[in-house]
Amino acid sequence: MTIGTTLVIGGTGKTGLPLAHLLRDANLPFLVATRHPANAAPFKGVAFDWFDASTFENPFNADPNIDRVYLISPAAHDALPIVKPFVELAISKGVKRFVFLSSTPTPKGSPYLGKIHEYLAERGVDYAILRPTWFIENFGATFVPGILSDNIIATTAKDGRIPFISAKDIADVAFKALTDEKSHNTEHIIVGPELYTYDEAAALLSDVVGRKITHKRLSDEEGKAFWQSFGLPEEYAQGMLAMEVLVAEGGEEAHFRSPVKDVGKRHLVDYFKENRDLWIPK
């Protein structure tokens, strides 16, 4: 099979960057699409913004050999009307395969990511849908301010257990879905190797950093405000809250117990040890 160029949308992000490294290491051609292409260095980047449709042509002008796309959604509650015009353009330019990053709480046909899943599955293209659980890397981003200022991890997840997954493990599945000769044409539930409550994760991090980190249990109202504090639109923040409620109800543990899943090999405690300085006040 001859593989053309892979377009990696969000190629400087959590999953896109490790995917770009895998493509480089395999000596396969790829192009990083990002709002700030200078940040793609040392990889080749091109300007792309979901909220500026005039940028949708840019990747195909930069490389007419693009035949597969790693697709991540914009941060919008109703993302399909934004994503669909780009996908249709890409198909018209010769793209045959799409690998889309969805999530465990958003099954096919559900609001937000599930609508894109449904559209790709029914469009008649080669596709794979990646449905990972909550990222290990959230501890090194979303939760950092609270850990540094107040020694807390704040969620509405209560005692829900999560098989936290590494973005590198997600990239491994994405790479195979993009490069395997036979298209997967299915969804992949992607989970980590162990289940943790946020209380347990906080205790694990406490041992690594040498001070007590606790899980602060937020009300639904507080949880929504937490997500809005990152600048997320109200509807999107409400969606994030709903996903945490599913955690509290055992939704992520159910995915871990499912017989059909991809299990990553990277462990939460190793991530904590490798990135310890993130949670040490300067």
TrEMBL record:
Q: Name one GO biological process term.
A: indole alkaloid biosynthetic process
Q: In which pathway does it act?
A: Alkaloid biosynthesis; ergot alkaloid biosynthesis
| Record flagged with keyword Glycosyltransferase | no
Q: Which Pfam families does the protein's record reference?
A: NmrA
InterPro entries tied to this protein? Ergot_Alk_Oxidoreductase (IPR051604), Ergot_alkaloid_biosynthesis (IPR019901), NAD(P)-bd_dom_sf (IPR036291), NmrA-like (IPR008030)
Q: Which residues form the NmrA-like domain?
A: 5-251
Per UniProt, the keywords (alphabetical) are:
Alkaloid metabolism, Oxidoreductase
Gene Ontology molecular function, alphabetical = oxidoreductase activity
Q: Which family is this protein grouped under?
A: Belongs to the fgaFS/easG family.
Q: What is this protein called?
A: Agroclavine dehydrogenase
Source organism per UniProt: Hypsizygus marmoreus
